[in-house]
């Protein structure tokens, strides 16, 4: 039985906040909306046509220069880390962050305004348990600039952080368990700080129009310039912890582990998130049942061929072994030396062509989309493949488990799926496939 704190949470009602965006200096208003279980955190750009939404996940990360930016296509949302830190630390798993600009209001440069709006909206438990990432063995990332992050197994989510400025000025250390109460009291009020030498050229180029001593502490030499006195003697390390929590929220799961961070920055934070996400993909792939389910839980070859028009030698799925909810499907294809492509790819050294794995993903995803649209009058056409990676070769005798997950659907017009192929518990290939629906 999960305890109350282990259920997913959303906000109780809509709440709003307005202010100035840091980079453009324009007015922006932000609204938090409740969202259903397993929705995650999504940003919505109300100021753009069709009001596109962007999942706050590592797959949508675009840049980490000065702040964390996510996006999809040409749509961007900048400086997401403070609002994500507040949502994550205050235990909000599912919410829509609606904005009428490309950046949340900067407020006073801390996460305090976001904690306030979350408290105004209230936090309510939902029916499904939270999703965790349990750290099972030490993981680490480091950079040439001296940043080091080590993640160790722990039953709680803890952060121990050492921050140090140029020439080790302002070296500070703090260690804590991250809970809503601790975050609200110890971390949320800590403001952004910048080194004068880093922002001087940006100010001259007018790239931080909304920036002022109202929303950042400026460190010049040994001097600390800010509108109000420091809120904590070690405010800088507290803000570093705030940024870590915000960046780690891009994992999309609660972390059970102890993060030891030395001189952290956005670049290494997100590198760690990428490593966690890869590990999560590997674990999910291993957790799949390998049995042919009885009844209507799967589809045999005959049933597959009733849905897919493909035939030998182009049918790249033998069976569907399972559906998980509405959005996930797993198919199987056994690869034998008799596959026609082995004759030429390559003589004496048979390796399955990567494009055939992409075709297998597309066919399995099509079956999922067919089940979703529940009509045979419209067919899904494979439009594009993104982020395709071939990680390991596939040989005759291998059995490929093909996983597809619907990540986005726009009405009856287009759908996006995330797919990966697994052989012997290892991901051999992956990609994001887009489909459009047309009348037959
Ligand atoms: Zn920050």
What is this entry, summarized?
The protein is α+β, with helices and mostly antiparallel strands.
Write the layout of secondary structure elements.
Elements: E1 7-11, E2 15-20, E3 27-34, E4 41-45, E5 53-55, E6 61-63, E7 69-72, E8 75-77, H1 81-89, E9 95-99, H2 112-121, E10 123-129, E11 132-134, E12 139-142, E13 148-153, E14 157-163, E15 172-177, H3 180-187, E16 193-195, H4 196-204, E17 217-220, E18 223-225, H5 235-248, E19 254-262, H6 266-286, H7 301-307, E20 319-324, E21 328-334, H8 354-373, E22 378-390, E23 399-410, E24 414-423, E25 426-439
Parallel strand pairs: 4-9, 11-19, 14-19, 16-17
Antiparallel strand pairs: 1-10, 2-3, 3-9, 4-5, 6-7, 7-8, 12-13, 13-19, 14-15, 17-18, 20-21, 21-23, 22-25, 23-24, 24-25
Helix pairs in contact: 1-2, 1-5, 5-6
The structure holds zinc ion (ZN).
The site of zinc ion has 6 residues, from helix 1 and helix 5.
Q: What is the radius of gyration computed over CA atoms, rounded to a whole number of angstroms?
A: 24 Å
Extract low-pLDDT stretches: none
Number of strands: 25
The structural class is alpha+beta
Largest sheet: 6 strands, mixed
Descriptive notes:
The chain has 440 residues and is α+β, with helices and mostly antiparallel strands. Helices cover 22% and strands 35% of the residues. Strand 23 and strand 24 form a beta hairpin. The longest helix has 21 residues, at 266-286. The protein is elongated and about 75 Å long. The termini are far apart. The mean pLDDT is 89. Zinc ion (ZN) is lined by residues 81-82, 192, 239, 242-243.
């Amino acid at each position: 039985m999960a305890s109350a704190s282990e259920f997913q949470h959303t906000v109780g009602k809509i709440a709003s906040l307005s202010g100035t965006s840091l980079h453009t200096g324009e007015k922006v208003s932000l609204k938090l909306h409740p969202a259903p279980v397993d929705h995650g955190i999504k940003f919505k750009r109300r100021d753009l046509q069709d009001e596109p939404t962007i999942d706050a996940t590592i797959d949508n990360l675009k840049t980490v220069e000065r702040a964390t930016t996510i996006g999809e296509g040409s749509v961007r949302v900048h400086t997401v880390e403070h609002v994500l830190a507040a949502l994550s630390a205050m235990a909000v798993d599912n919410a829509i962050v609606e904005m009428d600009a490309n950046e949340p209001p900067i407020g006073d440069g801390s996460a305090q305004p976001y904690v306030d709006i979350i408290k105004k909206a209230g936090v309510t438990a939902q029916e499904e348990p939270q999703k965790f990432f349990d750290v099972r063995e030490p993981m680490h990332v480091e950079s040439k600039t001296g940043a080091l992050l080590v993640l160790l197994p722990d039953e709680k989510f803890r952060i121990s952080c050492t921050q140090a400025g140029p020439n080790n000025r302002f070296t500070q250390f703090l260690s804590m368990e991250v809970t809503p109460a601790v975050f609200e009291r110890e971390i949320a009020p800590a403001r952004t700080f910048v080194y004068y030498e880093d922002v001087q050229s940006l100010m001259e180029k007018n790239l931080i129009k909304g920036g002022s001593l109202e929303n950042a502490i400026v460190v010049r030499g040994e001097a600390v310039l800010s509108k109000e006195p420091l809120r904590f003697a070690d405010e800088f390390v507290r803000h570093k912890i705030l940024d870590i929590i915000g960046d780690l929220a891009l994992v999309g799961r609660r972390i059970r582990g102890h993060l030891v961070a030395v001189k952290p920055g956005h670049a290494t934070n997100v590198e760690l998130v990428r490593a966690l996400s890869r590990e999560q993909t590997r674990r999910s792939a291993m957790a799949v049942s390998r049995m042919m389910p009885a009844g209507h839980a799967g589809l045999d070859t005959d049933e597959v061929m009733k849905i897919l028009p493909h035939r030998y030698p182009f049918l790249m799925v033998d069976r569907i072994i399972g559906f998980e909810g509405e959005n996930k499907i797993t198919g199987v294809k056994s690869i034998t030396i008799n596959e026609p492509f082995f004759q030429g790819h390559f003589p004496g050294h048979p390796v399955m062509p990567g494009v055939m794995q992409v075709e297998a993903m597309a066919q399995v995803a099509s079956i999922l989309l067919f089940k979703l649209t529940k009509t045979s009058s419209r067919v899904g056409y494979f439009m594009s493949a993104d982020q395709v990676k071939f990680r390991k070769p596939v040989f005759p005798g291998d059995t490929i488990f093909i996983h597809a997950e619907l990540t986005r659907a726009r009405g009856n017009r287009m759908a996006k799926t995330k797919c990966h192929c697994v052989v012997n518990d290892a991901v051999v290939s992956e990609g994001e496939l887009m489909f459009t629906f047309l009348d037959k």
